[in-house]
Amino acid sequence: MAWPFRRVFRVCWWLLCTATFCALPLTIWEFKNQGWSPHYQAWFIGGIFVILTTPIAVYEVAIHTEYYTRPRLQRHVIRILWMVPIYSLDAWLALRFKDARAYLDPVREIYEAYVIYNFYAYLMNYLEDELGLVDEHLAKKAPTGHIWPFNHCLTPWRMGQEYIWETKKGVTSYVIIRPLCTALALITSQFGVYSEGSWRPNNSYPYLAMATNLSQMWALYCLVMFYHAFKDELQPIRPLSKFLCIKAVVFLTFWQGLSLNILVAVGAIKVNEQFTTYTAADVAEGLQDFLICIEMFLAALAHAYAFPPRDYMDPNIPTKGFFTNVRYMFDLRDVVVDVQGEPLSCLLTCKAAEAVV
Description:
The chain is mainly alpha-helical. The chain has helices at residues 3-34, 38-66, 71-81, 83-96, 101-131, 134-139, 161-190, 205-234, 239-265, 280-306, 322-325, 333-340, 342-356.
């Protein structure tokens, strides 16, 4: 994919965005005159943002795939970049087909946990490539205490193997808990005891939301602790912008949905059910999906800035070409090996070290 083609693609995309945003107010005004329902207006406008968002992510993935010079890093970057179109398309389909939302949202939720794991693996692989044995390098550094307020209730992790294990355990636990909570939500909804947005104690929603939230916050905290210990070594890959992009998509969208459900519970979002088949919970879920369609456009731009392909465009490193490298996007053997094998060996090593001390 030559440079002139990439420049032409970017110019065409910017022209499309400019024309779209100029025409959008006129389109909304015409919708009002034609008497379109808010549901179809939101679906149409959300679809426009999906059309603008998807080419950004696909373009970035395509360039990374062509210049696949550091597979141990770029396979995780590509998986992270796919988060934006998956979120965007999933929300748009759920906005149009509300009855299918129960089956569409779990895809987004599971991939969210997968992205957090891949970001941790991306940082760890970079450190292994640059430092070799990461735990031995960390063991030589001064102790790193917990961040407030956890410094008042948790003992510091021993620098080295234990520190690596604790941060990894926090991240991988979310990879397990998030899909588990999603599965429990699907099961309990079939028995009529889930009731998303309802905070009554006889429903499973408040307990699953609390478990998901606590696990998510702890996983993000472990990522912060990992960065805190290796911020100097990670500086060449600008980890802060990458972390903020992922945190904004994962953390803020979760809290946004939770806040909308709270507004439903307190009566701030309500509908007259005599004139519509939509409930207040349906309106909140639709608003969440509509906002995600718009927000993913901004997230796609942020991800393109945080994970630029130019970092890997090294003319001195030969690549196998775009079509040969595509298959690496779907190779998940590293995930299976990482989740099944390394945690156990790491735990046994930590226990052995504690016994010696």
